[in-house]
Specification:
Layout: H1 5-12, H2 16-23, H3 31-44, H4 51-54, E1 60-67, H5 75-83, H6 85-89, E2 93-100, H7 105-116, E3 121-124, H8 130-141, E4 145-149, E5 160-162, H9 166-181, E6 187-192, H10 199-215, E7 219-223, H11 231-244, E8 248-253, H12 258-267, E9 275-279, H13 283-290, E10 296-299, H14 302-317, E11 326-327, E12 332-334
Parallel strand pairs: 1-2, 1-3, 3-4, 4-5, 5-11, 6-7, 6-8, 8-9, 9-10
Antiparallel strand pairs: 10-12
């Protein structure tokens, strides 16, 4: 369906004429209103044409740094960045993504310093490690704005964090888990942890366990080893849990490698009696949601996160006040009946 100016105006909460003035840079429009319009353009995928590029107005260069995972999760972010090139041009920005081969803090820190030598700002998926925090502080001292994305740092001079309140996401998963289990008097919950240096994964785990203790203490949480984003590893771990835990009633996956767990459930015919809650909606997890192998997917809005990160970096370059150091998308809950 073609997106029109009226759609953009409705999304931004302004008139059609105001949208036209902002996009064609005619007349006086408050900066806050213009930002609402640009965000609405971004969120509706309204095609605005290469005006900013043609006029030579791209003046900021921003870079995103993502880890390469076997699950391919961050491919969605890189595609979003590429598809939004023209929308970013309207923010006078050119955005490029980079991939890091290894999930090691030394390699990530080295990449940040390398990219930081020729950029106006960086958004990256953070590993919470001293050497990474030091790299962020070095970039900040050199005038480079840095935004943590998806997972935050415990201490650094980053401009802000863009991503879920992961503790709230974990507690939400536990509340849904308890409700789905209903009147079961007990049993074991297998918890698949994420990578320890991802603060977001640790926060999901902590939130989940706190809610289980508070509201559903009749269930026993079993910590499995981290599958480290490898679906073959998660398949073996899930299969072992199914065979070794006769009282297993549910599974919570805090991170990636959801496909392996789902395949194990289907292989053993347990997809109908094990409550399975995972994170991140993709084409693959969507299919498992529809056939009821996965009961709930807790998702974060990639589009919102990418745009918010660029918006923070633009504000930094313009020396504008950054009022909120945290930009959080809503926790999105998908079931088989509301997935699109």
């Amino acid at each position: 369906m073609k997106v029109t100016l009226d759609d953009v105006a409705q999304k931004a909460g302004v008139s059609r004429a105001t949208v036209d003035r902002v996009l064609n840079e005619r007349g006086n429009v408050k900066q806050s209103t213009a930002e609402r319009v640009y965000r609405a353009v971004f969120n509706t995928n309204y095609f605005i044409g290469p005006v900013a590029e043609r006029d030579g107005k791209i003046i900021y260069k921003f870079d995103f740094v993502f880890p390469i995972l076997k699950t391919g999760y961050f491919d969605g972010f890189t595609k979003e960045i590429e598809n939004s090139r023209l929308a970013f041009a309207r923010l006078n920005s050119r955005v490029q993504s980079h991939m890091v081969d290894e999930l090691e803090p030394e390699i990530l820190a080295e990449k940040l310093i390398e990219v930081g030598a020729d950029t106006d700002g960086i958004a990256f998926v953070a590993l919470d490690h001293p050497i990474v925090r030091e790299a962020v502080d070095t970039l900040s001292r050199n005038g480079v704005g840095v935004v943590s994305l998806v997972s935050d740092l415990s201490r650094s001079s980053r401009l802000g964090y863009v991503g879920l309140d992961n503790r709230a996401a974990g507690r939400t998963a536990a509340l849904l888990m308890g409700r789905f289990l209903g009147d079961k008097t007990g049993g074991s919950i297998a918890l698949f942890p994420g990578r320890p240096s991802y603060r977001g994964h640790e926060e999901r785990e902590a939130g989940f366990k706190s809610m289980i203790r508070e509201r559903f203490s009749r269930f026993n949480v079993i910590d499995l080893p981290s599958p480290k984003f490898d679906n073959e590893v998660s398949f073996v771990q899930a299969e072992n849990a199914l065979l070794e835990q006769p009282d297993l009633v549910s599974i919570y996956n805090t991170a990636g490698a959801t496909d392996g767990i789902a395949r194990a459930l289907k292989k053993h015919g347990r997809e109908c009696d094990i409550v399975f809650i995972a994170h991140e909606l993709s084409e693959l997890t969507r299919s498992y949601l529809i056939d009821n192998t996965i009961d709930v997917i807790i998702n974060q809005d990639i589009r919102h996160e990418v745009y918010s990160a660029v918006e923070l970096l633009v504000r930094h370059k313009k020396n504008e006040t950054i009022e909120l150091s945290v930009r959080q998308p809503r926790v999105e809950i998908y079931l088989s009946e509301n997935v699109y």
